[in-house]
Amino acid sequence: MELRHLRYFIAVAEELHFSRAAERLHIAQPPLSQQIQQLEAELGVELFHRKTKRQVQLTEAGRVFLQEAYQLLEHLESIIQVTKRTGRGEIGQLRVGFISPAIYSVLPVILQEFRQQFPDVELVLQELTTAEQEQALRDRRIDVGFVYLPLADTGLNYMSIQKEALIAALYQTHPLGQQESIAVQSLANEPFILFPRHLGIGLYDGIMALCEQGNFTPKIAQEAIQMQTIIGLVAAGMGVTIVPSSLQNLQRTSLVYQAIAHQTPLIETALVWCEEEEKPVVRQFLKVVSQLK
Prior knowledge:
By secondary structure, the protein is α/β, with parallel strands linked by helices. Helix content is about 40%, strand content about 25%. It is built from nine helices and 13 strands. The strands form four sheets. A five-stranded mixed beta sheet has the order 4-3-5-13-6, with helices on both faces. Helix 1 crosses helix 2 and helix 1 packs across helix 4. The radius of gyration is 33 Å and the shape is rod-shaped.
């Protein structure tokens, strides 16, 4: 049995006339009759009562087979549409890794726009450091990631989407918190709260380069992995830190952000992916990000 047998059968069942069904199918009437006979022979039942050589009525088995044939073809059409939409990247699943500061800058706008354009794509978000995202991309556990450049893995593809200056984060009652901007060297004797370098080489080295401009090496009193934790410890008066300017959107009571009085290294955020595993839904995501740049 082939799909054409079902389509031929449905045409005859709806027309209840071989000649009209043949015209509808754009085939001759004798071959159509032969196809229906082959179908009946394969099923081992009669699907039609032959009133005349050309006019027919459905048998009870024929009526059941007609309903099942409708459902089968409807399901087939659904499969075809799902396959096409998957190939166009309109449905499926996209696993997105992101560094925590991206939540306060580029990520919300990008995700909102992508959801509007592709509402049937399931977004699975994972908060990971830059280093963790590089490994997750290699392990195929995420499809794309939002990271700080540079990357340790030069085999990954990336698209730069934002560059931002560095600012200082201080607890609210800090003497420097009342100034419009501060010189970085004024932080030389302050206890710093930072993250381990391997978790974000680009940001860490940018902070160290800024401190070098002030002729000092920061005194690291406490390390933390997540930026929210670092900011929370600063707000608690445990020390100070330096962060990308977009972190100003992360507000905490007992915390102030201060601009640096001179030019700082620029921290670059990028979208990263593995080209050899690029799925259609990834290509659509890249298009959306390109549109918003």
